[in-house]
Amino acid sequence: MNWTEALIESGIWLIQAYSITLVVVTFCIGLLARRTVWGRQFWALAAGYFSPRRSWKPLATLALILFLTLCAVRLEVLFSNWYNTMYTALQDLDESGFWGAMLLFAILATIHVLRSLFDFYVQNAFTIRWRVWLNEKLLGNWLDKQAYYRSQYLDTPVDNPDQRIQQDITTFAEMSLSLCMGVINALVSTFAFTLILWGLSGPLSIFGVEIPRGMVFLVFAYVLIATVFAIKIGRPLILLNFLNERFNADYRYALVRLREYAESIAFYAGEKVEGAILRSRFANVINNAWAIVYRSLKFLGFNFSVSQAAVVFPFIIQAQRFFSKQISLGDLMQTAQAFGRLQDNLSFFRNAYDDFATYRATLDRLTGFTKAIGDARALPEPEVLAEGPRIALQRLTVRTPSGTPLLKDLDLEVLPGEPLLIRGPSGSGKTTLLRAIAGLWPYCEGRIIRPEHEALFLSQKPYLPLGSLREALYYPQRLPDDTSHTPADIQHQEQAALASTHRVPSNLDDLISGVQARPRLSQQSNATLSNQGQPGNHDDESVTLDGRAADMLRLVQLGHLADRLDQAADWGRILSLGEQQRLAFGRLLLARPDAVFLDEATSAMDEGLEDAMYRLVHEHLPDTILLSVGHRSTLFAHHSRQLILKGDETGTWEITETDLLR
């Protein structure tokens, strides 16, 4: 074989194959996106990423991956020809031809290794960037218009959104590329090796009928029949994989809730009940796992049997021609290799059916998630207007999801210096009214006028984000000198990642904690470091900010925590509910909003602390509009008016005046 000509032919083949494949793939994607359900699902998720208007890089990278995939196919063809050359040299006892084949193998193997490594990097870089984009798209939509909250009002709320964002996005990006390139590789290889087998195959006699090039027709018939049976056997795996994802997510969520509500469960001694719930959900996981095992046994057993039976076919069929010296040993071995490769290519859809089933389940989950986001964002919204620092409700009617009125035709304006207390029996709609004012409650009509951004809602159980106590104090604002992801932090992460490539760390927990929970330098330390070696340069802003946060903790009687401001911890577990509520008041005093809404925000405090917190608000925020929800009579002294909800399912309400304590 003239390998110089083979090299030229390979270049021509790559140009032709690339052009044809690019046209065919583009046409097929367009057809599938229009004509099939899963094609439309894929395009709805991926169209934005591949839009040239957004960026040309994803399409260029995909074109490069396609080229590398076709290079892999051509290398397989060249290796097939190499097998023929090498075995023919052995049969002819051609020593120089044998060593020439070894040198050629070294060249082909080097190209194959370099291509494989480059392809590995390009594909992984592509999927990582795709994951980043898709995560930002779904996460942004999930947070936009508070869909994460409003989705609970849907008739069928989406289950386990955390898993769909974190896990299903990864599976979608990785499997989309691997299956797409796998299909292309299989189809192009099928064409290439069919030509090789066509040239090597002789006539085949079946029941006295001679079939020219019979081996080619035999392998196609064999694999197509096997694929039909495999699809029938493997079809239930689609539903089983979908259920596997759901049951595992449900079990994981139950475990998270056990950790989140550990203290309440311990006080109730509810271990038996929780254990029964956890074991029940785990039983669903295991039952489905066994169903997958049994179905996979049938599916894999059939595939293994088909694959093993195909190994000896080419030798049996070509043996007579070899012994009659019609073909050489090289031809025989190349026939076997080409037959096996062709059989593998044609069997791709049969062998990868389990992957297709997993992929289809992932598509369904992500499509259901995006639909839930769209439905949540499409729920009716109250008419919320911003007219500066003003709170007013005009003809406001609030209903339950079933249509029962909680509040009907409320006209009210709350002015600075005239705090309003909202009272009523349990279930009368006090908190729901605050949800409506915040724009969270979809079942209401009327106009709501409130500050667009300068408003703060404090709930009965404050939310404390993960991170330092300082970050919890300033939430939802960013720290005034936010140094998140500083160059030092990024460098530390890069060093940890680089170190992990050289050896397996002895303690992975220490490595992760070192990356994720490095203690932040306090602002005072930062100022000290920045001023070293610079006489006369005194940056007092950081020190002032540090002192401001510490002073705020002392104001709300949490001074014992001042030296732990920059300690990162799960403060929602460390602090008692009363301490959390006082921290929320510190958050309020730092934010200085135009309006504040307190939903039983002092319920865990004693009356003395409650009085102290309200006095702080009156003293430090005299111009802030204040609305409170509460039951205690001690709140009367801090509010000049009361809105009393009757809770009689007619929406009746009443406004009364009280004496404000000064």
TrEMBL record:
Residues annotated as transmembrane: 12-33, 59-79, 99-122, 177-199, 211-231, 299-317
ABC transporter domain span: 391-658
UniProt protein name: ABC transporter ATP-binding protein/permease
Keyword entries, A-Z: ATP-binding, Cell membrane, Membrane, Nucleotide-binding, Transmembrane, Transmembrane helix, Transport
Membrane topology of the entry: Multi-pass membrane protein
Principal cellular location given in the protein's record: membrane
Location of the protein in the cell: Cell membrane
Coiled coil segments of this chain: none
Organism: Pollutimonas harenae
Superkingdom in the source lineage: Bacteria
GO cellular component, as recorded: plasma membrane
Pfam families xrefs: ABC_membrane_2, ABC_tran
Gene Ontology MF annotations: ABC-type transporter activity; ATP binding; ATP hydrolysis activity
InterPro entries: AAA+_ATPase (IPR003593), ABC1_TM_dom (IPR011527), ABC1_TM_sf (IPR036640), ABC_transporter-like_ATP-bd (IPR003439), ABC_transporter-like_CS (IPR017871), ABC_transporter_sub-D (IPR050835), P-loop_NTPase (IPR027417)
Domain ABC transmembrane type-1: 63-358
